[in-house]
């Protein structure tokens, strides 16, 4: 690593001003009077003298900082001549390489004590010519000379904007290509130093032409950008990256804008038109079944040996899955007829002043999903029905399946000219980078592992996240449970699809059932189904030879594994669920209605069932058509989130020249606040 720095002139100016004040004679100070001393003009300081006086202070600062980390630094002062004179250039190159070989950080600065004033010239035209006029051009010249991998140019703004930062329409340019200069309006030069952003861009393009990658980023706010250098080196999306190769498709920012405008057009369509799009997509899923399954086969072949069995099962598509998807989509189409623009409340505020609360789309949704290509048409249909723009980010393991499913979705959208409302992010965008697009995305919905959800919740500081981090579902078998019902419900909840987030993970058994036919039948069934049992602490204490004791009672196995624990009562079961559960789906198996109702009312989870499998916790099975996910949050939507969960509201007020002052104490009007009838929903 090399460091190009400025600051010698600023250090020197401060030091020389202090010296000049001290050098004023006492007689002059007394003669001038105190007030005149305050107004005493300090002569204009010559920059070269300031540089000479400030070099030692600048280097002392770097020495003090690097010494804390036991890193040695060395100062190198250069001028244009050191690059243009062949012998001096070789000497400089050799010195820098020797310092780097010894893990010493070279601190490089222009030798401003002897450098001539900068003159306008026509440099930056070729790889072999660049004048060292400021730190930007010096850094570019050194980067090419030393064949560096990366040049990081730190500024006092986030990067390069298409117009001066701070202006209303200024947008950060994530990737800048040679030839894009005409699309950028440069502002004034930097408050400090000799160059502005225009000089930085010219230097960056020159270095890029010489084979060095360049990033311009903000280095002035340690609390915000304290990790800016390591973030850039790790490939995170920070600042403006200069690239010679333009991607084939749009950037994710452009896709976000397309989803926003497409979503707004989608919301203005008639409900019948949105339903027609979804019906057409359902037809395409069955008509193009062979192409979809062929693409999915490629994904499965590439994933073989790399993905665990539960993930491979999620990745797999089949004819029956596609048929179920098509049925679910038609349910969504039917329920979408009066979703957007439905009147929820009407109030007469005053005479000829009426207020309505109506449903509207949330805006742009970002749905991130792993190993679940069937998720794409489900989520797309829900977004279409609710009039939302949609950004989809699928896992690379399902790339072939996602690609064809997205093409079919866009084909369906095209029948009403809203093809761009649903976008599939194909760039190598990290999830963390997508979560920073707070001006483009209104809601993030993760569909995947608990680790994925936690990572997104951590990264999305400015965007709401809807979802659940874990699916730790419990089933409590009460002392008054039916043997046959308990066996059927446990088998279905655990074994039907163990990789699902609504699969059973912990079985709670009432203490009185131990060593009874019900308990023996449950254990025999689990053994036949090849379910690995983990014993909870209480259960283990009852057994002479117990299965492996559970490492944690808060575990989502996602496979044919199950924790069994013993509880003393229904209240004990509820307490266990509240302590170790994830507020997803919890079930009681009992013939006692009073006990069941107590459980239903007291368990604080998104879904609570009596004598029903945990696997019913699903948008399709609830009659929602499909779901974007299951939410365990307590705001906006909870449980399986279907069409209703993707809508918000706005208020419409219709008046006739009404002003608030008319309703004051001495005004001519009075508030009525009368509730008005709401148009009936179409429930067909």
Written account of the structure:
- By secondary structure, the protein is α/β, with parallel strands linked by helices.
- The chain has three domains: 3-19 and 44-115 and 128-242, Carbamate kinase (3-Layer(aba) Sandwich), CATH 3.40.1160; 256-459, Aldehyde Dehydrogenase, Chain A, domain 1, CATH 3.40.605; 474-627, Aldehyde Dehydrogenase, Chain A, domain 2, CATH 3.40.309.
- 39% of the residues lie in helices and 17% in strands.
- The strands form six sheets. A six-stranded parallel beta sheet has the order 16-17-15-14-18-19, with helices on both faces.
- α6 (135-145) packs parallel to α7 (197-209) and α14 (319-335) packs parallel to α15.
- The longest helix has 21 residues, at 47-67.
- The N and C termini lie far apart (69 Å).
- Residues 120-129 and 190-194 have low confidence and may be disordered.
- GO terms for molecular function: ATP binding; glutamate 5-kinase activity; glutamate-5-semialdehyde dehydrogenase activity.
- This is Delta-1-pyrroline-5-carboxylate synthase.
- Keywords: Amino-acid biosynthesis, ATP-binding, Kinase, Mitochondrion, Multifunctional enzyme, NADP, Nucleotide-binding, Oxidoreductase, Proline biosynthesis, Transferase.
- Its EC number is 2.7.2.11, 1.2.1.41.
Instruction: State the total count of DSSP E strands.
Output: 23
Percent strand equals: 15-25%
The main β sheet shows up as:
6 strands, parallel
- Indicate the structural class: alpha/beta
Count of separate DSSP helical elements: 23
Strand order of the largest sheet: 16-17-15-14-18-19
**CATH architecture type of the largest domain:** 3-Layer(aba) Sandwich
Taken from the alpha-carbon principal axes, the silhouette is globular
Helical amount among residues, as a percent range? 25-40%
Subunit structure: Can form homodimers/multimers.
Subcellular location: Mitochondrion matrix
GO cellular component, one term: mitochondrial matrix
Main location: mitochondrion
